[in-house]
Amino acid sequence: MTDPLATLAAPAPFLTPSPSMEIKNKVIVITGASSGIGAAAAEAFAKKGARVVLAARNAAGLNALADKINAAGAGSAWACPTDMTQRHEVENLARVTFERFGRLDIFIHNAGISHKNGTLMELDESEVRRVMETNFMGGIYSTWAAVPYLEKSGGGQLIFVTSIIGKVGVPRNSIYCASKFALQGLAESIRRELVTKKIRVISICPPGVDTPFFKNNDRALVRKYRLHPVEKIARMIVRASEKNKREVLLTMDAKLLHFLNCFFPTLMDWAVVRFKKR
Questions:
Q1: In CATH, what number is assigned to the domain containing residue 26?
Q2: Sign of the CA dihedral with 243 first, then 141, 110, and 126 last
Q3: Is residue 6 part of a domain?
Q4: I want to staple 104 with a disulfide (CB 3.0 to 4.6 A). Which of 149, 174, 218, 261 is the partner?
Q5: Separation CA 130–CA 120 (nearest Å)
Q6: What total of structural domains would you count in the chain?
Q7: Which residue range(s) make up the domain with 200?
Q8: Are 172 and 119 in contact (CB under 8 A)?
Q9: What is the pLDDT along the chain (278 residues), one digit of tens a residue?
């Protein structure tokens, strides 16, 4: 019979310090891996000796990246073209990864798109659905697909690459913000659901990053402030994985925006509206 006093005395799993993650030889799925943060993260993890599975719709881009990583020799890469808006394709991605390598250690939902620069009233329903299907439903499909294989592998990490504007809403980006806010809520909720399965859920909140994202997603907006190098963000994602972090705001400007939004929301309302008019 279980001693109730011993049960009460045992530390709760979510209060126990998380052990560090050794990246070498880990099997890591990265979605949105054909360019930008996903591609840079794949190279960064491979340099640590990981076996990375590259997923995106752009098969040519994935194959080129896989060839580059395999030629470097530190880790290895395998391309698996996948449409993150199709649940059966995401499930296939997780299944074939497990079948090929015999395990799955880390699944990173990084795939994301945005919409044209405009207010919510200027967007049509098809654009709204397109963004939410990729950014948010893709995260749900990733969770449904990855968790059984992470559990079979003895635990692991489920990483969501969200955005600082998944914590700070900005005008003319309403649906993109909404999709990233939704991912933040999803991550926080399932983090508490999956802790007993030894699956660590990590939220990564990057700021503006110098990637093809803004050209490829109909933003029609020139960024007037500093964009961070994608290689820097990729290294920080690897570090967050190694340290088994809970949530990471990657840069000081992201941390400052979040702090101001939490403690000085009225000031932030004024500042963001003023900035977006410039």
A1: 3.40.50.720
A2: negative
A3: no
A4: 149
A5: 14
A6: 1
A7: 19-252
A8: yes
A9: 445 554 444 455 544 556 788 999 999 999 999 988 999 999 999 999 999 999 999 999 999 999 999 999 899 999 999 999 999 999 999 999 999 999 999 999 998 887 777 888 999 999 999 999 999 999 999 999 999 999 999 999 999 998 877 677 788 888 999 999 999 999 999 999 999 999 999 999 886 544 455 454 444 444 545 667 888 889 989 999 999 998 877 666 666 665 665 665 676 666 766 665 55
